[in-house]
Design a protein that fits this description.
Low-confidence stretches: none
Radius of gyration: 18 Å
Shape: globular
Number of strands: 8
Order of helices and strands: EEEEHEHEHHHHHEHEHH
Largest sheet: 8 strands, mixed
Structural class: alpha/beta
Length: 276
């Protein structure tokens, strides 16, 4: 697995899969990149350069834990672009990784090609996702056998009386089957320092980011699942309005991992955008 040096000397790892023009992929979590796989077969259309965020996967743990902060992780992406020798790079960010990608294009617009945000976190641009919005999405699953217990846990979380996020896991998948359970267990973040510091004070400057994105010339795709509790379609639509040129795709029947819920549909939408 190839590595490169971050600006502070931390050794970061990435993997390369597929053929074609490079697409730098930033995982969420913060966690390692293994859960992204080949993004449902997107590697058949593009060469995926998939980063392990610092302190996750095969990337080294930094000496300074404050470097886990989202805005500082942007520097790691820029170091990867420079290491790869790319004058511009297309970017894909999933979940929390979309916050990194969004801040990257705000800071380095001339070095960004196309931008794909999948199930995107919205904190970088200050889009608030209310408990009411999450509950509306959850109610679409009311006929599922696991719904009563999961919805009760969600209500407690959104009302501030509970914190059992594990109980609401089924809402993040289009199908809560054995494969989803296995993927869920494998994809949980293991570095709690990275999680704790990711959104620390100063990590996000929504007004400044929005101002920078107002003149963004990159073409942007925001793709979320119909059932995505983390990134509800209504909230992602609000996110899309921040960009001058953005395409919104809501994948039917999908949750927070649309390339796993329906790989063909996900790849078709994403590859069409990247090839346009």
């Amino acid at each position: 697995m190839p590595t490169f040096s971050a600006p502070d000397g931390t050794q970061l790892a990435y993997r390369v899969t597929g053929q074609g023009d490079p697409l730098v992929c930033i995982p969420g979590g913060p966690s390692g990149s293994a859960y992204l796989g080949d993004l449902g077969g997107l590697a058949a259309h593009r060469q995926l350069i998939v980063l392990d965020l610092r302190g996750t996967g095969r990337s080294a743990i930094p000496e300074d834990t404050s470097s886990y902060r989202c805005d500082r992780l942007v520097d790691d992406v820029e170091a990867l672009r420079d290491h790869l020798g790319l004058s511009r790079t297309d970017l894909l960010g999933h979940s929390a990784g979309a916050n990194i990608a969004t801040q990257y294009v705000a800071r380095y617009p001339a070095r960004t090609g196309r931008l794909v945000l999948v199930g995107p976190g919205t904190r970088a641009v200050g889009v608030e996702i209310t408990g009411e919005v999450r509950r509306e999405v959850a109610l679409l699953r009311k006929d599922e056998p696991w719904f009563p217990a999961a919805f009760a846990a969600l209500q407690a979380i959104t009302e501030g009386t509970g914190s059992d996020w594990e109980a609401v896991a089924p809402f993040f998948w289009g199908r809560w089957d054995a494969a989803a359970r296995e993927q869920h267990a494998a994809g949980r973040p293991s570095n709690q320092d990275a999680v704790a510091h990711f959104g620390a004070e100063g990590a996000f400057s929504p007004q400044a980011t929005r101002a920078a994105l107002a003149s963004c010339e990159s073409q942007v795709l925001l793709l979320t699942g119909e059932f995505d509790l983390n990134s509800p379609p209504a909230s992602v639509a609000e996110f899309a309005e921040v960009f001058p040129a953005a395409t919104l795709v809501v994948q039917p029947g999908a949750g927070h991992y649309p390339w796993l819920d329906d790989a063909d549909r996900f790849v078709a939408a994403t590859a069409e955008f990247l090839h346009a």
